[in-house]
Amino acid sequence: YLGKINDNSVAFIFIVVGVYAFNYYRQLFLEKTRIAELNRTLAETKLEQLKTQLQPHFLFNTLNTITALIHTDPEKADLVTTKLSDFLRTSLAKEHQQMTRLDEEIDLLKKYLEIQQVRFEDRLTISFEIPQDTKSALVPYLILQPLAENAVKHGISKQSGDGKIEIISKIDGDTLVLTVRNSNAQLDDSFSIEQHAQIGLKNTVERLQYIYQQNASFTILNNNNSVEAVITIPYQNR
To answer: I need a surface site. Which of 102, 104, 127, 151 has the fewest CB within 10 A?
Structure first.
C-alpha cells in the first residue's frame, strides 16, 4: 500500500514538474516571439524613416535646379517640373513598399535620369545593361536613385565636357550585383563613405544593413577613369 502511495506521489511530482516546465518554456517562447516581433517592427519603422529621407533630399536638389533654370531657361524649367511630377506620381504610388522588382526600380530610375538629361542635354549619356535574368530580382525600393544622384553631382555637374552614367546588373552565384558607373571621375585617395558621403549614400548603407544584416555590401571605388558604386545583395526572385 505504501509502495502504491509512493508511486502515486512520484507520478504527481512528475506531472507538476511537467506542467511547470511546459508553462515556463511556453512563456519563454512567447517572450522571445514578442521581442522578435518588436525588433521587426522597430526595423520596419527605421526602414520607413530611412526611405522617407530620400524624397525630401531629392526634392530639395531638384527644386534648386528648377529655381536656377527659371532665370536662365524658363522652357527647360517647365520641362523639368513636368518630369518631376511624373517621377513623384510614380514613386508615391509605391511609397509603402520596401522591396520591388529590379525592372520596376529601373523604370523609376529612368524617370529621375530624364530630369538630369533635360538639365545637361547632350552632355550626359546614360546606358543600361540589365540582363533579362536579373529583371525579376527583388531589390530595396529607391536603392539606385541616390547612387545615380551622387554620380551626377560628383561627375558631370563638375565637368565642362561630356559625362556618362552606366547602370549595370548581373547575377554572380547567389548574389545580385548592381553597379552605377560614372565616367571621367575620380575619388580622392582619402575618400570613405563614413567620413565623406552625404545623406543619400549613408542612407543606402543603413538600409542595406537593416534589410540584409551582414549579407550585403556597398562600395565606392575608382576603376580606371571611372568611379563605380557597387551594391551586392542576396539574389531573390519574384
So the answer is: 127
